[in-house]
UniProtKB/TrEMBL annotation, chain A:
Keywords: Protease inhibitor, Repeat. The keyword Metal-binding does not apply. Belongs to the protease inhibitor I47 (latexin) family. This is Latexin. The keyword Magnesium does not apply. Coiled coil: none annotated. SUPFAM superfamilies: Cystatin/monellin. PANTHER family: LATEXIN (PTHR28591). Residues 3-105, 125-233 form the Cystatin LXN-type domain. GO terms for molecular function: metalloendopeptidase inhibitor activity. It comes from Cyprinus carpio (Common carp).
From TrEMBL, chain B:
This is Carboxypeptidase A1. Belongs to the peptidase M14 family. It catalyses: Release of a C-terminal amino acid, but little or no action with -Asp, -Glu, -Arg, -Lys or -Pro. Its cofactor is Zn(2+). GO terms for cellular component: extracellular space. The keyword Signal applies. One of its GO terms (biological process) is proteolysis. Coiled coil: none annotated. Pfam families: Peptidase_M14 (PF00246), Propep_M14 (PF02244). Its EC number is 3.4.17.1. It is found in: Secreted. It comes from Cyprinus carpio (Common carp). PROSITE patterns: CARBOXYPEPT_ZN_1 (PS00132), CARBOXYPEPT_ZN_2 (PS00133), PEPTIDASE_M14 (PS52035).
Length: 233, 429
């Protein structure tokens, strides 16, 4: 039973659509030193569209998790279209955030991080980020953020009106041989879907450099139990 | 001067601790400002001077490594009152040295902190480390200690056994007989670790504040409080031993290789509806029948036999929400207006502490349709103030909330719980 017209901003239909917009924002502007999180939905509405689908109009604020609670909130507006097709297809997002290019530049940290790990001898390999107790070393934080941005590509693609994804943890990160001056990282991530409460495991290969940003080259859903079948979508 | 803590051996460290403990037991001494110096003599003449120094008893020096030969370092413990004199002596004679341990008391303090932190068996609930996540045995020991320390206020009731035969322990805080009651549970979904950790903190908070905080004292003089800190012990053990992300009970499902039932879909209210799954492999599997899980049945039996519970709060994470019935239907609860207003007040209290933003509303509108949930059932049993919390955070760490957020989370949540309890007390029914 979907609602049309104005939506309650604190209720789940608006929030799920806003999270989709966030995933889109992170795929475009996320980095080892920048991941955006939803702060608040201010206004939301939804309507059915002629082609068969539902379009949400959103007005919301986001914060950069990197700068902590002290960071400024960015105001954004987005249109999120969930297509109604027989087989699942990714939502389409149009997004505009004010002052996106005015937020503190992380170019220096990015360059330092890049220089440190692009060397041919670099073979980063780690598991359980964070660990069971929520601990994450300083050194691992940019890798966690990279995983979170790369996972956003998957979360964006897999989202529907009936999902609400977060990244639960990074099961592993393994650096691959650099290619075309890109840091190449293989991640295994656990995603948490709120409505179903399922933990979904994905392996992915991502590249990053300060110039080209994050790109996801391969993704592979992985079963968590030997007998599990692919979840329906 | 090089602060060279890493250069001293663990044997020396042990000796230091032993000395400190010896002295601490036999005399109240502290070691503030005392230092350990490493001296490098460059010739026999300097060695001779150092031997003379060692004979100055009034200085109270303790040579950990005696002056023997110029090729060997000389380590000396210098009490604060002699530091000035020793340094002048060394400088005057151009004897090289550096400071190995800048402040012995600091070192002892750090060690003490480390030891307390990793001491596996706290001696009292004042010793217990609230800023860390604990395992089942530690938490069960905590409960017993709390009861032993506050036996006229707290008792432990075993309301049943889990599937794997672990006791289902409930702490009862009571100052008199035949009182109406208020119930809190944490950890019914085992992976939501900040909830059990907060439950421990709430237990300690209650015993600390009774007799000190007028509002809580008044509440406890009229109501009993029941607190089930680990509502799903089998799942909790499993999150430590096998799978940190385990949510359900650990009861096997006949005919399936998948284990466990979602204890928050197993209640007799809208059971089996679309807001739960009929697939045993699902995280929201409702189970073969209502109250099929012993963890759930135990609470059902307790609530029914008590008969006078007036508030019931089931605590989960994450999402930062305060929710009231219903989850199984869009029909508003009869008391919706009052429940909504109380939620608003409780959230406002919560937010006042650390500015943590919460949303609030009915389960079905705010979070999702969920059938067979705890608070829908308790509400239908006549417990008007039935609420579900979703604690920190909103997805950044999710279930893996860093331990340094346990106390801030517990503190702010407590303010909301106090608001609910106070309202319950002021509005008897």
């Amino acid at each position: 039973m979907a609602s049309t017209g104005d939506l309650e901003p604190t209720h789940y239909p608006a929030r799920r659509a806003a999270q989709v917009a966030l995933h889109y924002l992170n795929t475009h502007h996320g980095s080892p030193f920048r991941v955006f999180g939803l702060q608040q939905v201010h206004k939301a509405s939804a309507e059915d569209v002629a082609a068969g689908g539902r379009k949400y109009k959103l007005d919301f604020s986001v914060t950069d998790w990197g700068s902590g609670s002290a960071g400024p909130a960015l105001r954004c507006s987005a249109d999120v279209l969930f297509p109604r097709t027989e087989r699942h297809s990714a939502p389409e997002v149009q997004l505009h955030c004010e002052a996106l290019h005015q937020i503190n530049s992380t170019a220096q940290e990015e360059d330092a991080f890049y220089q440190k790990y692009i060397s041919p001898d670099s073979t980063v390999s780690a598991r359980d980020i964070p660990d069971s107790f929520g601990n994450m070393s300083e050194e691992m934080q940019p890798f966690w953020r990279l995983a979170r941005v790369a996972a956003s590509f998957i979360m964006l693609r897999e989202s529907s009106e009936n999902t609400e994804f977060n990244m639960a943890k990074v099961a592993s990160v393994t650096q691959q041989e650099s290619s075309e001056e890109q840091l190449m990282l293989e991640f295994v991530v656990l995603l948490h879907d709120f409505p179903s409460q399922e933990i979904v495991q994905w392996k992915l290969l991502a590249s990053w450099s300060p110039d080209r940003g994050v790109r996801v080259l391969q993704t592979e859903w992985q079963p968590r139990c030997p007998h599990a079948t692919k979840p329906p979508n | 001067m090089i602060l060279a803590r890493k250069f001293y051996s663990s044997k020396m460290k042990g000796l230091l601790v032993l000395t400190a403990l010896f002295v601490a037991v036999f005399g109240k001494k502290t070691f503030e400002g005392d230092q350990v110096l490493r001296i490098t003599a460059k010739n026999e003449a300097q060695i001779f001077l150092l031997k003379e120094l060692s004979e100055q008893e009034h200085l109270g020096l303790d040579f950990w490594r005696e002056p023997v030969h110029e090729s060997l370092p000389v380590d000396v413990y210098v009490p604060f009152h002699s530091l000035q004199a020793v340094r002048v002596f060394l400088r005057y004679n151009q004897i090289q040295y550096n400071v190995m341990i800048m402040d012995v008391q600091d070192l002892l303090d750090d060690e003490e902190r480390e030891m307390v932190k990793y001491r596996t068996i706290p001696r009292s609930t004042d010793d217990f480390v609230y800023t860390a996540y604990h395992d089942l045995n530690s938490i069960y020991s905590f409960m017993d200690m709390l009861v032993a320390e506050n036996s006229n206020l707290v008792s432990k009731i075993v309301i049943g056994q889990s599937y794997e035969n672990r006791p289902l322990n409930v702490l009862k805080f009571s100052t008199g007989a035949n009182r109406p009651g208020i119930w809190f549970d944490t950890g019914i979904h085992s992976r939501e670790w900040v909830t059990q950790a907060s439950g421990i903190w709430f237990a300690k908070k209650i015993v600390t504040d009774y007799g000190r905080d007028p509002v809580l004292t008044d509440i406890l003089n009229n109501y009993d409080i029941f607190l089930e800190i680990i509502a799903n012990p089998d799942g909790f053990v499993y999150t430590h031993s096998n799978d940190r992300m385990w949510r359900k009970t650990r009861k096997p499902n006949p005919g399936s290789s998948c284990v466990g039932v979602d204890p928050n879909r197993n209640w007799e209210i809208g059971f089996g509806g679309p807001g739960a799954s009929s697939n045993p492999c699902s995280q929201t599997y409702h189970g073969p029948s209502v109250h099929s899980e012993p963890e759930v049945k135990a609470i059902v039996d307790f609530v029914k036999s008590h008969g006078k519970l007036k508030a019931f709060v089931s605590i989960h994470s994450y999402s930062q929400m305060l929710l009231y019935p219903y989850g199984y239907t869009r029909t508003s609860a009869k008391d919706q207006v009052e429940l909504h207003e109380l939620a608003r007040k409780a959230v406002s209290e919560l937010q006042s502490l650390h500015n943590t933003a919460y949303t609030y509303g009915s389960v079905i509108t705010t979070i999702y349709q969920a059938d067979g949930i705890t608070v829908d059932w308790t509400y239908e049993q006549g417990i008007k103030y039935s609420y579900t919390f979703e604690l920190r955070d909103t997805g950044r760490y999710g279930f893996l909330l860093p331990a340094d957020q346990i106390i801030p989370t517990a503190e702010e949540t407590w303010l909301a719980l106090m608001a609910i309890m106070e309202h319950t007390k002021n509005n008897p029914y």
